[in-house]
Design goal:
Blueprint (H helix, E strand, L loop, with lengths): L1 E6 L4 H12 L3 E8 L10 E5 L6 H6 L7 E4 L5 H4 L2 H22 L3 E5 L11 H15 L4 E5 L3 E3 L7 H14 L10 E3 H17 L7 E4 L1 H10 L4
Parallel strand pairs: 1-2, 1-4, 2-3, 4-5, 5-6, 6-9, 7-8
Helix pairs in contact: 1-7, 4-5, 7-8
Length: 231
């Protein structure tokens, strides 16, 4: 039985990571850290709620015993945050703080939902901050670090992202012709979530086939989250 913690559990991918974890008999407990409590009343769920995200790291460190796997699907947009600098405070600073706390608390496996374009040397702020975060969490030395790099995330968001909405509708339409038309550039939020859970559990089990740093691209996201997924 595995104990887990999730940050970003009210977001598009994070909410599906949460529901997937709660559905699995192999998961003993799920702690969430968020501004608002998840809607589920599952007895395995232990929500830690605080509107002040500077208190999230202390809340994570208070979990006893520490979770075996920590999932981060935490992220925002420049539009929602108000500026690139404010977005970086969430996507980079807060994520890194929580990763550092997870490591010092004794978490064995760290799973990060990143992006396919992450690159610390990019001149574009979003892929740059994502790439910088990846570089830093790799340095922390978890027993296993799992980084998922999906393409466009297909699914209905609560916040307005007009440009993404158009592309997601195109992806949804093309998927009706067959998954092969979209798998190489866009993945469904549920597929990404299941891939994250599958990889996290596999990493926790260990074995020679699991690298210390496991970087999962779009084709492997589809493989883990749909082709090979077993509930």
């Amino acid at each position: 039985m595995a104990s887990t913690a999730v940050v970003g559990s009210t977001g598009l991918v994070g909410s599906h990571i949460l529901s997937t974890l709660l559905s699995l008999p192999s998961i003993s407990s799920v702690h969430t850290i968020s501004r608002r409590a998840p809607s589920s009343a599952d007895t395995k769920l232990h929500p830690l709620v605080d509107a002040d995200n500077t208190q999230w790291a202390p809340k994570l460190s208070s979990i006893t015993p520490p979770p075996g796997i920590f999932f981060s699907a935490l992220g925002t947009t420049k539009g929602a945050a108000g500026s690139v600098a404010a977005q970086r405070l969430i996507d980079y600073d807060l994520n890194l703080s929580l990763a550092q706390t997870a490591k010092s608390s004794g978490v064995k496996v760290y799973v990060l939902i990143s992006t396919g374009g992450a690159n610390s040397k990019s001149m574009i702020p979003y892929p740059k901050m994502k790439g910088e975060l990846e570089d830093k969490v790799k340095e922390l030395g978890f027993e296993h670090t799992v980084i998922l790099r999906p393409g466009l995330i297909v699914g209905d968001r609560t916040e307005s992202r007009p440009a993404e909405w158009v592309v997601r509708k195109i992806a949804g339409g093309m998927s009706m012709l067959g998954n092969g038309f979209v798998d190489f550039w866009a993945q469904d939020k549920d597929v990404i979530a299941k891939a994250a859970v599958a990889a996290g559990l596999k990493a926790l089990e260990g074995g020679e086939g699991v690298p210390k740093v496991w970087e999962i691209g779009q084709s492997e996201v589809v493989k883990l989250g749909r082709t090979e997924w077993k509930a």
